[in-house]
Each structure stands twice: as C-alpha cells, then as structure tokens.
Design a protein that fits this description.
Largest sheet: 8 strands, mixed
Number of domains: 1
Shape: globular
CATH superfamily: Vaccinia Virus protein VP39
Number of helices: 12
CATH architecture: 3-Layer(aba) Sandwich
Strand order of the largest sheet: 1-9-10-8-7-4-5-6
CATH class: Alpha Beta
Helix content: 25-40%
Strand content: 15-25%
Number of strands: 10
CATH topology: Rossmann fold
Length: 313
C-alpha cells in the first residue's frame, strides 16, 4: 500500500473494469434518491459563500475532582472555515466544454471530509496527516480553485491546474481568500495552465516544454469529478500518467457515479496504461457519513505506478 494513504477496511484492488462497474452500480446511492442534478452547486450565483463546520470528536464524560461534572466541549473543539468563490456563469453557457467555471458538489464534499479529518486529528485519516503536511499536491481540472484554497493549508505546496481560460478565475479566487497580510506570490499555491488535450497531442519529447515537471515528483495528484465525457478520457489519463512518478506519486480519483459506459471506459483505459504498471484500489464505502458513506454518490479510487523492476518480476 502507498505510505501516504490509509484505505478503509474492505477496500478492494481493481483488476477488471466490468466487475468494478457491476459492484458500483448495484449499490444504492443518494444520487438517484436526492435528484442531485448534474452536480454543480448553483450556476445562477456570481459568488458563493461556503462554510465548513469542523468539530472535534465528542469526549466521553470525565468527572472533575469531587464535582461529578462532565468535561464540556470548548470553542477550540469547533471551527468554521469560510471560503468565498467567484463563478463565471457566462462561460458555463457560452464556452463549449467548460464545466469548471462553477463550483461542484464533489469538491465541497471532499474538502469537508479532509478538513474535518485534519481538524479532528483522526488516527484513521485517509491521508497520513504527518506525511501530508510535507507533501506536494497537483490537482488536474481544478476549475474554480476551491480545493486549492481549502486544502493548501494542510500541505507543503499545491499546484492547481486547468485550461488557460480558467486560470484568471482561479487567481481571483485565490486572492479573494488569502489573508490581507499575504500576497499571492508568498502563498504555497501556484496556478498553472495544463490542458490535457494539448498535452495529449504533443509528442513525448515536447511535453516537458509545455508542462515541465518539478525535480522532486508530486506526492499526490487529485482528480475530482473530471470524468463525465468519453472524448476527454484519453487525454485525462495521459495527463495522469505524465505527472505521476513511479513509486512516489499517488493519484486520487473521486467521481460522482453517472453514466456506466463512461466509468467502464475510464477504468479499462486506466488499467491498460503502461502495460499494466498501475496498481488501482477502490476505497470502501462502509461508514455512516462523508464521502465513504454506504450510500455515498461517489467512488474514490487510488492508484500509483509501480516501480519498473517490480512489474518486470
């Protein structure tokens, strides 16, 4: 298992796309029950105010000396993180293929889940919290930049990437949420253009000119709700393969369950990448709340490229 990740018990390795799709789409989820729509929050607002309520675990009653009183929850046990997000409603309607100009529910739910685990110092946190603090993160398809704003305080460096047309919106949102005393150039977050289709069209020898990789590989690559149209799958997977370093980078893919055929094609292509050098696991849905809830509308896969020597035997 990858040292950065703690998968829930009963998580399973993915070896066959058809079997995985059958398991995913045969379980009940909130997608159909709640009529979630396409998955964005509100495409009519120019600005959204998002609040993440974080709480420490409830302590068991602990009598005080001679008083018989219980330990009370203090203000320090609870915290609210507020983030304001600008949206580009016009681009959503007028720019073909642009779905990243509005905030999507998957990013909010993932941010809530990870912020809560970090705040509670959860011993079974999805990411090893100590390692996470020194990790570098690359997000593919960052859209409005919500996750970079929410999660960058938890990591060492965060690179938010998307098509060129979305980088100004991400920059505005970063500036909007930085402390008054902090300038963007002193933030641990960078905003970069990375168009998967452009990268995919380039020969391997020219890709480093378009998107140079850092000397120290990324520790984590996030791909959140980017799987929705089959035409984008080859370029998305090519980008995942390009930015992931064998034996180092863990790729976390979170998606809302929609069309079965798109999910199947994505998995078939991912399993076939590099002649099978990718190891892919599905995080089990076995809790009562959060992205791993039993009726969660999401699936979370984690994958990494195994070292070549281990693949060759």
């Amino acid at each position: 298992m990858h040292p950065l990740i703690r998968l829930p018990p009963s998580s399973e390795r993915v070896a066959d796309a058809d079997e995985e799709v059958f398991l995913l789409y045969s379980r009940p989820t909130r997608s159909s029950a709640e009529m979630r729509g396409l998955g964005y929050v509100d495409n009519r607002q120019d600005i959204l105010t998002l609040r993440f309520e974080l709480k420490k675990p409830k302590h068991a009653p602990s009598p005080l000396k001679g008083k018989g009183k219980s330990k009370r929850t203090t203000d320090a046990d609870e915290k609210t993180v507020e983030i304001q997000m600008l949206q580009d409603k016009t681009a959503l309607r007028s720019r073909v293929g642009d779905t990243g100009s509005v905030v999507w529910k998957a990013s909010i739910d993932l941010a809530q889940f990870l912020l809560q685990q970090h705040h509670a110092k959860a011993v079974d946190a999805f990411f090893d919290l100590e390692r996470l603090s020194s990790s570098t993160v690359l997000e593919l398809g960052a859209g409005t930049g919500l996750l970079s704003i929410a999660l960058s305080p938890l990591v060492a460096q965060y690179a938010a990437t998307d098509i060129y047309e979305l980088t100004p919106l991400m920059a505005k949102n970063l500036r909007l949420n930085l402390p008054d005393s902090q300038k963007p150039e002193f933030s641990n977050t960078t905003i970069q253009e990375l168009n998967w289709e452009t990268l995919h069209a380039l020969p391997p020898a020219r890709r480093a000119q378009y998107y140079p990789l850092p000397e120290t590989p990324y520790d984590i690559v996030l791909v959140v709700d980017c799987i929705y149209h089959p035409s984008l799958l080859p370029s998305l997977l090519d980008a995942m393969d390009y930015v992931a370093a064998p034996g180092v980078t863990v790729v976390v893919v979170m998606m809302e369950l929609r069309a079965e055929d798109v999910t199947r094609e994505f998995l078939e292509r991912w399993l076939a990448l590099g002649a099978g050098e990718w190891e892919i696991w599905r995080a089990a849905n076995e809790v009562d709340d959060g992205i791993f809830a039993r009726d969660s509308p999401y699936v979370v896969w984690v994958g990494w490229k195994t070292l070549k020597d281990s693949v060759d035997g």
